[in-house]
Structures are given as C-alpha cells and as structure tokens.
C-alpha cells in the first residue's frame, strides 16, 4: 500500500515506474529518442539530470563533462550552448534542453537531479514560466541544494531527500534520533550503499510513518524489482524499462 499523497506529483495509482535517464540500456541516455521510447512503452515518470552551459542554458545530461557518452569533450559549465548542442550521444543524438522536454512531453512527470548549483535559479524560473510545478520532483546528492530549492519555491515544489536526509532516515529506522526535513515528499535511495543495506522493511516503515514515499534506484534485475515491491516501496527507477514494465504487469500494478 502506498502512502497518502502529499503532492500532486505523486498522484499515481500503485507503485511508480521511473525510466532512469529515459532508459539507459540502449546507450542513448538522456536523448529525445530514448525519452520517446520510454513514453511509447507507457512510462509517465522519467528521471533526468540538469546542468547549465556557460551561457545559462539548462541541458538534460548526467555528467559534468561531455567526454564519457558523447563525441564532444569539455565541461558543460565552461561551454556555450552553441558548442554543447553539436555534441552527439553515442555519436548519434544531440543533448536536449530541459525546456524542450517539458514542451515535447506534456504528459510526463520529471524527476530531476540538479547536478550543479548554477542550475538552481534558471531551473526554478523555467518551471515557473511553464507552470510545471505538479510535474516536477527535485532531488540531489546535496541536501543543501535541495533545501535551497525548497525555500525558494515553497510547497509547490516536490523534493526528495539528499544524502544527509537519507542517512538520517536510515538512523531513525534503527531507533536513533536524527533530524529530518519535513518538506520532503520522498526518499529516493539506492538499495545498498558501500555494502550497507539501505532499503529494508524497517526503512520503508520509517519512511511511510512520516508520509514519505520510497523510490529506489537503479534497479535492472527482475528478481530485485520483485523483492523491493514485496517490501512495499512506492517506486523503482530502472535503465531496463521493458523489464520493469513486465514485472509490474505480472504483479497487476502496471498503469
């Protein structure tokens, strides 16, 4: 059973299926064709990342540099958009602007990792212009960055815990007093971290007791998906979008 809905972003029947970077298994992460493939497969929640170029454009891309997955090179923050847009993921597909994603996929809800502090203000300004507050959840490894986003946007912005918030929730699940930010609506976590189990029944219970959903990343194996759904998690992020859909169909929870 899922937790009560605390934000319109989470208004979804049953567990949420997230396409991580649109579904990374095809080697075209964070590209329009991959996002289109996820939407065609029935995904309405997509995880992506945002960086800013030197001239302030918001690019949907995971890495700080172009080198790993494109035929370009250099730090995105140091390059103008006119150069970044020439890079091709897997030598084939350009990097999309986040504004383009909001316009192209009006029915999609986006889970956005703000990878750089420079992205914070332009991102919130874009969401305001697009009136897309109900379609956005912001996360980051930096708890401080998420807190700043929450303070600027207020309760209209859905946020998840950063690393510190997740650690404190894990401590609370063990009965150890730890401060938790009340404005978060979800804990988005790995199943394990550095060999330590993060997600178990105690963790899920502790999150649900605070009205938080639990979304687990990045899960690509069917047996792990089943195990986590058995624990009562509220969402799974995956690179293997066909596998997660099949698992959820088998359980009768695919929407």
TrEMBL record:
Transmembrane segments: none
Domain GP-PDE span(s) in chain numbering: 15-248
Highest taxon in the source lineage: Bacteria
Pfam families according to UniProt: GDPD
Protein name as catalogued: Glycerophosphodiester phosphodiesterase
Record lineage: Bacteria, Bacillati, Actinomycetota, Actinomycetes, Kitasatosporales
């Amino acid at each position: 059973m899922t937790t009560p809905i605390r934000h319109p972003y989470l208004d979804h029947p049953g567990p949420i299926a997230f396409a991580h970077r649109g579904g990374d298994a095809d080697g075209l992460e964070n590209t329009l064709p991959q996002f289109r493939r996820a939407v065609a497969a029935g995904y309405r929640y997509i995880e992506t990342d945002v960086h800013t170029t030197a001239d302030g454009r918001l690019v949907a891309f995971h890495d700080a540099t172009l080198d790993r997955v494109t035929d370009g090179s250099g730090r995105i923050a140091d390059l103008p958009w006119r150069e970044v847009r020439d890079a091709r993921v897997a030598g084939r597909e350009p990097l999309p602007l986040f504004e383009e994603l909001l316009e192209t996929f009006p029915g999609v809800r986006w889970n956005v990792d703000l990878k750089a502090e420079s992205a914070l203000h332009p991102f919130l300004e874009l969401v305001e212009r697009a009136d897309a507050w109900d379609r956005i959840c912001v996360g980051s490894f930096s708890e401080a960055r998420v807190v700043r986003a929450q303070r600027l946007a207020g309760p209209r912005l859905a946020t998840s815990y950063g690393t510190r918030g997740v650690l404190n929730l894990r401590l609370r699940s063990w009965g150890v007093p730890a401060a938790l930010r009340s404005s978060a609506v979800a804990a988005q976590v790995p199943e394990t971290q550095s060999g330590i189990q993060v997600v178990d029944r105690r963790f899920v219970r502790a999150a649900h007791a605070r009205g938080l959903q639990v979304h687990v990343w990045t899960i690509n194996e069917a047996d792990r998906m089943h195990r986590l759904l058995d624990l009562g998690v509220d969402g799974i992020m995956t690179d293997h979008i066909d596998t997660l859909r099949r698992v959820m169909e088998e359980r009768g929870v695919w929407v």
